[in-house]
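#structure-requests
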Amino acid sequence: MLRLIRHTLRFPLLSGLSLLLAVACTSLVLVLPGITMRFIDTIIGKNRPDLIVSTALIGAGAILARQVLFTIRSYLNNHLELKLTHVIRVELYDKLQRLPIKWFDKNSSGEIMSRVADDVPTTNRVIIEGLDQALAAVLQFLIVLGYLLYHSWELTLVVLVPLPFIGLLTAWWSKKAEPKWTASSEASSALNAILHDNLAGIRQIKAYTVEPQALSDFDEASQKVGDKHMEVMKGQAIVWPAVSFIAESGIILMVAFGAYWTLNGDLSPGTVIAFLVAWGFLFEPISQINPLSQTFTKGLVSAKRVFKIIDTPDEIHLTEGNRPEKFTGRIVFEDVTFSYNDEGIALKKISLTALPGQTLALVGTTGSGKSTVLNLLSRFYEPTSGKILLDGNPISEISKEWLRDQTGFVTQEPFLFNTTIRENLTLAKHEATDAQLWAVLEAANAAEFIRSLPEQLDTVAGERGIRFSGGEKQRISIARALLKNPPLLLLDEATSALDNTTEKLVQQALDRLRANRTSFVIAHRLSTIRDADLICVLDKGELVERGTHDELMEKGGHYARLNKRKAEPDH
């Protein structure tokens, strides 16, 4: 709550005006009971018809002024809510960009989207609907209470009799409701995760005709959301009518004592009627406990989920760390061991050296650890033990931002953002000219099909590049790496999606790009890495062979068997 208040205080003018308007609106509620008392005790009691019009105009003016101020306050509150939502949402997104890859391995995209899209606005309702209205309610209660105490402290004590019972009941329910709202929010996040996965994999769902199963899973998750929400609603259906019963029973008690003291001459009839009118304003905040309690509980649950991400430690050395003035490209792995989890080892005591300008190829069966080597070089993950040196500098002490600026990474699964080809390419070099873009597209053998498009570089790629084939997306990704022109290249089966003819053309471009640069290459087709300076063969996370193509073929070990297997027609 304090963190939310601190966010609100970043907008002191809006917050201050809202508070002043809340005080002004609340103070005007005293006009109606005061006028009622005047009508009963003065105009009727003392037969003063000359005061009717002026008293009525004062009452109408006060009501009009209260509504005008309320309208202005509502506008300011909505404006404040939008600003708060924007600030917290941007803060959350900024944090997401600074979290380590390992965090994303454990959290689904659908759940993350739920935190950004749903939890942030719900969090801010605590301030706008919750804290603001609660503050106004407390002010109204105190102002009306002071008015009642001024006219009769005895009758005021009678009015307050139900409050302790209401306080105990609402406090008990708030404590019980929070875990229920948490379960409801988690069920909603799980539903969003299923929806996100099913939409992303809609082609697979259709291809395997599993629409009924997908529908069943979604139906089950949706039903769970309803069940968890109903657990909250069941309690509210009992608690809040009970609160209303206790509060409204106080009217009978107040009127009974008021009538008795009026008959004894201790109170005027106008005072009792004024108390009856003021009772509505005194207990109006009580009637708001239900919606305010829901808003507070849901909002604080959402706030905990949002701040849990914001409080997650940043990826270490993202911007801080060493930034060498020059990077020649000498890379050394010394007894590097790595595990994605506690269940198995992905790499075991790997030691290898890539000299400046060399091309080092990684080969092996699926799951042998090839991609893990590239992930460690990019510092997406940190070695469990051992160390990696870049020009003699421990990679663990180097700024990740600097390291990734020196690296061109073309992944096995090409990814294009849902924006134009130009914007997808200029991720690598923001100031690139169109001439430079066409040059790298030519080198990647992608210019021809892009020129055939009506909008050419301004063509929108679609979600995940859906408008293009796998080979076309890969060539655009390679062009992006060519544009970056980095000293270190990481190619994770970068030509796997290309046909033989296109692969030869792109391979020529990659060969030119690799000149005088250190390159780590994972190749689907072993024929593409025959000329590598060093070939490292991995098997179950261990480095079992190393050497040139000819040396390894002559040895007749793992590499030779892989070549033979690839050459067989069945493979």
